[in-house]
Amino acid sequence: MPSSHHSNSTLKSDWIIKFFLVIGLLVTGLFIVLPLIHAIQLSFYHLESFVSEPQWIGLKNYAKALHDPVFWRDLLNGVIYAGFSIFFQVVLGIGIAVVLSKSFKGKQVVRGISILPYLLPTAIVSLTFLWMMDGSLGIITLGFAKIGIYNVPWFETPFTAMATVIFISVWLWTPFVTTCFLAGLQSVPQELYDAAKVDGLSAWGTFWKVTIPVLRPILTVIVLLRGIWMFNKFDVIWLMTMGGPLGATEHLPVLAYKKTFSMFDVGGGAAVATLSLMILTAVIFIYFKLFPFEEK
Amino acid sequence: MSSTDKEKGGITRRKFVKVAGAAGAAGALSLVGPGIPFIHGRAKVTLRFLNSEPDADSIRVLKVACAEYERKTGVKVALDTIPAGQVYSKLTASINAGRPYDISTLIFIGDTLLLAREGQLVPVTSLTKKHEWGPKILFPFDNEVWWYPFDYNLCTMFYREDLYQEKGLKAPDTWDSLVENCKALMLDENKDGMYERYGIALPIGTGGPASYMTFAFMWAEGVELFDDKWNIILDSPTMGPKVIRYLDFFAELYKTMPAGMTQIGFGPPLNLFASGRISHTVYTGRLVTNLEKFAPKLTDKYKMIPYPDSKGVNKAVSFGYDAWVVVNTKYSEESMKFMEWFTDNHYINFLHTVPLGFQPPRMDVYEDIRWRAHPMLEKYWWVMEQMWDYLKNPNLIIASIDTQGPAVDIRPGKVFNSFALPEMLQNKVLKGMPSEECLKIAAAKMRKALA
């Protein structure tokens, strides 16, 4: 009977959904929630290594971190690094997506190439840039010398070091933003552009009044995701500057790592990581209030 | 799926879920099941060896030795290799996870102390007492030796003798003469500010290379970081003026270096020297092996000297030992047997894998004709002989940040990892701060690291 068949099929499909939900919850619990709880737990202890006898010290690790100017400097560094990286990734990502959405010869090839940086392993990119920006032999350094700009201090001043890691992060992750916006652009109804044309809007006006409003939901998600990823981004900074020079590119993930694995302060590192999580959670909460996701 | 399919034994969703569930449960059990031996269960006894020497030849020798040991005793030794910088984290993680390595390489005595204090290591005194050892290498505590060193990693200076002869220069004996020589050997053929050759390259970045390679000038000057009570004395009336002198000297020397010294690691000073871009460098004996391989034209064009002090009185070299530890596991006894066999039979084979790079800490090795028979050691015996002399010369200072202080302790390790000293240099040469201010900031940072 059709109704019985439909009911059986719904039951089975519910069962499968539940099954995968349980798997998802198990994986999340095992690999995210439990380590998180363990990390938070560690932050209340003094221990020099993972094999040391932990000593309960309550909130002392938090008090120490919050009274440490290095913590606040690293928080600011993280905000600068994440903020500028996201800004340039989004601006360039939208720009490139708009260009790639137009029809031109070799479009598919260019689209394919544009995603390449995102496919490269971060370690390879970081080390390659390190060599290309080498102060003595780097191809970029020598290229600048050819046009009369000598000895560019790529990593030697706080400003240039931060600018360099931001530049590399933008180079590396803009393609992700481009791809998302490119997908979004496909969903902009042609009628809207036709209407804009009838209303006499310029290309710039069409972009602001048609394209951007349609892309807004994607923009909200992209900024959120990139914000979380960039704030927690460890590899590029660690591989390129290890937080230097003079702490200019050190942010909270690097500080947490250094405390835990170099400074024999596992509890202190866990406290910094927990504080970082709390700050990020608060920012996301505010972000959701300001830019609620549209439910459709 | 039709009933016919079912009868034929086709896969239904229910079956799939059952199989997947069973596989998942088995997988989970294999992860969490206490006492279910995974590796140890495959042979009667399997020892796990965490190696951090990445050279292909070193790994080959270790693997061959492990295989030979298994053939002789039936005890399997499984080798894992990871970068040296991660070895301590990996070892502690393995202990914490309840599946510790039985033998491991360690590169910091502070890490060894910490593990020994927690009862995680067994002493290797019975093995080390068989031989005479060089200075500052065994670091015994609690009347026991806890590691078996295989490399001194003495870091010394090299200069281009052919260029010195061309310019009629003498080997630098003081800081001033080093600066003058470095300046004299800089080459700007096109007069465009892009030098074809610089004086020297010394890392100043926030990391291990600077800590290891750049401060031996300061040790030669007699600088010490701690007093007998573990107080930081870098800015004391005795040490402060020496450090200030060093900073002023370094600022001058920095002018002869190529750009990018904050970024360079262990490799670039070697590459820059091999490619003729610098006339001086600092490195271990591994430089000799690399020149032989990659810059054979330079093999007879350099000389080696220790780091000088400001007045030409004292000399120093820095060092960065490597050693094996035996972890306190249920197989400690077997591990000790393996270590005894390995160090008796394969120690020299292992040292031969980086012939001038692994500088033997065991003094008997220098006179062992088996070790000296390696072609590279025969060819460059003058290099090794000089490095051997470093160990025998009581007036030569052998020092490093992480071995400072009156006893073995993790405090120098904390100071090392605070990178207060590299940052002191950065403040001087990148920010142009007065030396007194740089010193004050560095001392404060060290104290904070210990607080």
Task: Explain what you see.
The complex is a heterodimer of chains A (296) and B (451). Chain A has 296 residues and is mainly alpha-helical. Chain A has helices at 2-42, 60-66, 69-101, 107-114, 116-119, 122-132, 139-146, 158-186, 190-198, 203-231, 235-240, 252-261, 266-290, and strands spanning 45-46, 55-56. In chain A, strands 1-2 form a two-stranded antiparallel ribbon. Chain A is globular, with a radius of gyration of 24 Å. By secondary structure, chain B is an alpha/beta fold. Chain B has 2 domains: 45-151 and 321-388, 3-Layer(aba) Sandwich (D-Maltodextrin-Binding Protein, domain 2), CATH 3.40.190.10; 156-319 and 400-450, Periplasmic binding protein-like II (D-Maltodextrin-Binding Protein, domain 2, 3-Layer(aba) Sandwich). Chain B has helices at residues 3-7, 13-32, 56-73, 87-96, 109-117, 125-128, 161-167, 175-184, 208-213, 216-220, 240-254, 267-274, 286-294, 332-345, 347-352, 363-366, 369-372, 375-379, 381-392, 411-418, 420-429, 435-450, and strands at residues 45-51, 75-81, 103-106, 121-122, 148-151, 156-160, 198-200, 278-283, 302-305, 307-308, 315-318, 322-327, 397-399. In chain B, the strands form 3 sheets. In chain B, strands 1, 2, 3, 4, 5 and 12 form a 6-stranded mixed sheet that branches. In chain B, strands 7-8-6-9 form a 4-stranded mixed sheet. The termini of chain B are far apart. The interface between A and B is large, with 41 and 46 residues.
